[in-house]
Amino acid sequence: MQTKSHSNPNLIMIGLLLGGFVGMFSETALNIALPQLEQQLHVNTGTIQWLVTGYLLMVGIVLPLSSMLTKHFTTRQLLIFALCDFIVGAIVSALAGNFALLLVGRMIQGIATGLILPLIFIVLLAVYPPQKRGAAMGLVGLVIMFAPALGPTLAGLILGALSWHWIFWLFVPLLAIALIITLIFMQNVSEVTKPKVDVLSIILSSVGFGGLVVGASLAGDRGWGNPMVLMALVIGIVFLYFYCHRQLHLETPILNLRAFSFKKFSVGTVLVMIDFGIIMSSMYLLPMYWQKGLVVPVALTGILMLPGGIINAVVSATSGRLFDNYGAKYLTRAGFGLSFIGALMLIFTTTHSAYWYVVLAHVILMIGAPLAMSPAQTYGLNALRGPVAADGSTILNTLQQILGALATAIATSLLGIGQAASHATGSTAFVHGVHYGFWFTLALAVLGFFLSMLVSNEPEKSVDPLAEKRAAESTKTTTAEEN
């Protein structure tokens, strides 16, 4: 992707970043309200978590299509539609009086987030020169990392004074402001070529990613050995296999998976996925631990989540600049190392843990995760060259959101398994279940740390195999003509 000259790229990004902030905020804002929603909507924990995974499911289905959509519609058209769609979804959720309607509203919002997230990176790569992308990515990190961390705090304060409906009413004015800014400042950065739409790829992608998320989500309620769960997982894996195979053999794929021929991009993408899994699993479990394990009121829970959110914002804003100066090698290792310490501390919590101890564990976790996130993203995306560059952010964001949905579903399942395995009852049993979930967070941190050993500050040496093949064929043709 070539960078064009723009007089003020920051103004172009404002509407996108505000829309992205609301989208990412929405991913965790309801976490703190889930115990309350269980009672008011008369559903269990396995069902209520669909408000999180259903949202992420739609994000994961739409994200792979974003690269194709940018070739059929202008940047302005896509962003304006996404913001209007988000406003509709927020209003539907705010007016919902039952679980089904609330879930529909959440899924409508998921469509918007699935469009906005890749646009952030597409526009960023188009309007900022390479030497300024690290700092710009740090600003994006402020959106992607701070918003989910801030969600429980603001939602807790709202729930303390009002009802959960007002969480969604809060979205509407913010989205309206983003829409106005977009109408004034947003510019088109991608070329509309309108290639042929491969309907089969869309079906394979939607069923494949959807099957994985649905299977993992159902496991939280029915167990991993349930026939419905196994069937959904198998269908998801099979459809994704054929989807990947098709993308690698199409002349103009919906998603150019050849980006994975670049080693640094592959490593960076996996690290981002793992990091987001750490965030989503811990941010799902921690508010419930405060309320059900330590019996803390919802408003106070939001306040106790605030220090971690503030630290998250500071680290997210600075990690991009640290990447510009030091590269990703040591930042990713330090980030996952600190995430390991934070997760380990949460595993040792009890029903009588001191508030300061839990807050400290959360703060350490919120230093580690964003410290690794922005450098890993920039490390991966900077490695891409040629036609695959435009697809890089879409691939990265798609897999990040899918793993976020899977991590939430797995954490829910482990929470239930832990509670069932406990010989105690009440809050003690719940804390036992939460520990099972935090062991999963810890495992992700360990995996991320070891994979970060593959990160190097050396220039990317791999090339796009398709481009290499065409270059070789061109050389042969030229040689033959000369002879």
From TrEMBL:
Keywords for this protein: Cell membrane, Membrane, Transmembrane, Transmembrane helix, Transport
Annotated spans, Disordered: 462-483
Organism expressing this protein natively: Lactiplantibacillus brownii
Listed Low complexity bias regions: 474-483
Domain of life from the UniProt record: Bacteria
Major localization listed first in the record, in broad terms: membrane
Topology of the protein relative to the lipid bilayer: Multi-pass membrane protein
Subcellular location: Cell membrane
InterPro entries: EmrB-like (IPR004638), MFS (IPR011701), MFS_dom (IPR020846), MFS_trans_sf (IPR036259)
Transmembrane listed as a keyword: yes
Keyword ATP-binding part of the UniProt annotation: no
Biased amino acid composition, Basic and acidic residues: 462-473
Residue ranges constituting the Major facilitator superfamily (MFS) profile domain according to the UniProt record: 12-460
Protein name: DHA2 family efflux MFS transporter permease subunit
CDD domains (alphabetical): MFS_LmrB_MDR_like
NCBIfam families membership: efflux_EmrB
Residues annotated as transmembrane: 12-34, 46-66, 78-101, 107-127, 139-160, 166-185, 197-218, 224-244, 265-286, 298-318, 330-348, 354-373, 394-416, 436-455
